[in-house]
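Recall the central idea of this unit: under ordinary conditions, the amino acid sequence of a chain determines the structure it adopts. In this exercise we apply that idea directly, starting from the sequence alone.
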Amino acid sequence: MTGVTRFSLTLGLAWILGETGFAQKTAVQRAADLEHIREELGINEFTAPSIAQIFAEFEALKPLPFDKVWRDLPEATPQDRPRLALSAGQAIADGFLAVAAQKQSRIEPVGRVLLKLAKGLGVGDHIAKHSKGILEMALRKHWAGVQRELVRAQAEVEAGMMALKDEEIAHLVSLGGWLRGLEITASVVHETYSAERARTLIQPELFDYFTDRINTLNPALKKTAVITLIQRNLQEIGPLTRKPVDTPIPPADVKKIRDLAREINQAIATPAA
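Accordingly, the structure predicted from this sequence is:
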């Protein structure tokens, strides 16, 4: 991922996290603020992009058919670290969906599940305060504050993984969020299709970023069932999303993207036999 791409991702993230004072700053100042949040926690340009950028996609696709894209968060806690990390990313993405739809009652389960997954990864202390903050701000319907706590939650998990010399797992957190966001976005576009809405799914830079991260995983991790499935399905998703921005993704391809992403997300959420 180029420096320009990283900056553009941060810039997009900064734009969506608008509180009154925060939103009044210039775009460059907002980007710097969000970059500082991650840097102060030990997150730098070599770590994964923030899951929060998918919130911009949800905003662009409003009104959201929330009941058709929400899922009950899994109660079972994965026993292996790759699925723990991927599930943590999924939970953060679900949190952003609840914020975009302003569904107060769905925020508490996100905070609870996120804390449980973080404990499984050995970084529960990093997340506890943010889990509490997510709930408190949701009760006050302070949606910008919930967004900010979700951003910090991802950064804290990544920082904890880096401290444990576990960079690969840090990347899987972001990958899990992107995969859940891809399923949600494709589902929303499929529900109310238009060529313009379908362009939201054209994400070549993110696709390249995550494909590269998967390709550089250690061989033992790449052989696990869930990573093998992710690789296989992304090989099919890639050609469907690699289109010029003026070439719309047809409805049949939108549905296929949704189905392939959903298969991955269900596998991540299903306890291994």
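Confidence is low (pLDDT under 50) at residues 1-34, 41-47.
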